[in-house]
Amino acid sequence: MTISEENYLKVIYHVSLVAPKGVSTNAIAGMLDTKASSVTDMLKKLADKNLVSYQKYQGVTLTDEGLHKAKMIVRKHRLWEVFLVEKLQFSWDEVHEIAEELEHIQSEPLIDKLDAFLGFPAFDPHGDPIPNAKGIINKVEKELLSEANLNQMYTCVGVKDSSTEFLQYLDKQQIALGSTIKILEKEPFDETLLVEINGKKLTISNKIATNLYIR
What we know:
Protein name: Transcriptional regulator MntR
Subcellular location: Cytoplasm
GO molecular function, one term: transition metal ion binding
CATH architecture of the largest domain: Roll
GO cellular component, one term: cytoplasm
Shape: globular
Domain HTH dtxR-type: 1-63
């Protein structure tokens, strides 16, 4: 498979998590910043390889083979992120783009040894689950901070937005995976939250709260 084909499979996989009945060509084009006509051409190629099921105007879904390949790409990406953070001391806002390149390495033995070397991690540095070698994903129950109850203790387990800007904001506020969070007050007008994070009081916007996963 080419790098471009792998990128398409990964995008279809991620979008299908919220659109399981079919991913539109426009959605793919938007994610990859390309023309819808180019997406259509690629989908035909992927369909010829039995990696996707595609009908014009009906959207696209991954075949069983395509789904497995997509999960393996995600697996490599997230394992490399763990390696970069835990072993090379990159910060969690630096690793995504590097892992985007490393995820295209084709050696399965290398990835299996990387997985073992890291101690078979279940989650990446952003709290996203890592598929195992068979493509099985251990899902964890979680909710957004914006949906949480007042005066109940939670733990930060992930981020919805993994952009560099958002992760740097969290670093600045000393919010990380494992941080304890308790909502003290919620402003009815704009849903701004007064929270206690690791014992420190902090006011955060609804935009921040809708991008933090807790458990």
